[in-house]
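Q: Structure tokens for this one, please.
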Amino acid sequence: MVRINLFNNENKAETNTKSTPKSDIKGVILAGGKGLRLHPLTKVTNKHLLPVGREPMIFNPIKKLVEAGVSEILIITSTEQMGSIVNLLGSGSEFGCNFTYKVQEEAAGIAHALALAEDFAQGKKIIVILGDNITTGSLKAFADKFRTQGHGARVLLKKVEDPNRYGVASIDQEQVIEIEEKPKNPKSNFAVIGYYMYDHNVFNVIRNLQPSARGEYEITDVNNAYIKEGKLQYDVLDAPWTDAGTFESLHHASQMLMKESTNQPASSLVTKEQLTDMISTFEQKINELKKHL
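A: Here is the predicted structure, written as tokens:
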């Protein structure tokens, strides 16, 4: 059973935890926003529920977190779309994780949404994914590095052909030195993409932020605060990636995931553990039916 309070941000939604093991890092997926660039599709549904390949968009970040060993995941979205997302995702048992849900009542930026995760994090490190970021690659190696990093933050970078559309990172061998937001003359072609890893101090950083010129609390300002402390490390994602926030990138994301599923060997579509569970379930049903013979 999923229990949700849609009216008080001090109260968090809770899920049935069952027997899923606790993870040393928690996950946060930001799935709010109005999806204006995808109108009219998003007039009737949340952007993150639109199909990408054979599945809803939000399945990709969920699966990437679970692959990385994250079993406790917070989904943050708007009041209007919460019901649809809970109806789709449920408790998380289908994915091998536990979901908690929380409402962002006003769209005041990524950092503002992330601030709602403080109670959920309980002092643990977190991996934050923007819900429209799609990749065929694994995050496990990056998460493992963050597990051993100690304090600070870690971001993923992607080499792009049009860096002036993104926050662009200047880097040395280990750390991000500077992030410029959509620069006219980029100092590199490494874009900061929507995968962020933070220690528990991120919530103190957010509390000290000021709204940007557009009235929002920016995730770039959070990352720059870590840069000032010399505590923002990075990895480069070599696998295919896109954000699916426009019609063009949504189409590209679908093609990317369809190609991956087509190239995937049939034997890898279901794991050995999943097959064992399926066989056990069928055996139980057969034994129940035999009682009626």
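A few notes: The longest strand covers residues 190-198. The chain is about 30% helix and 25% strand.
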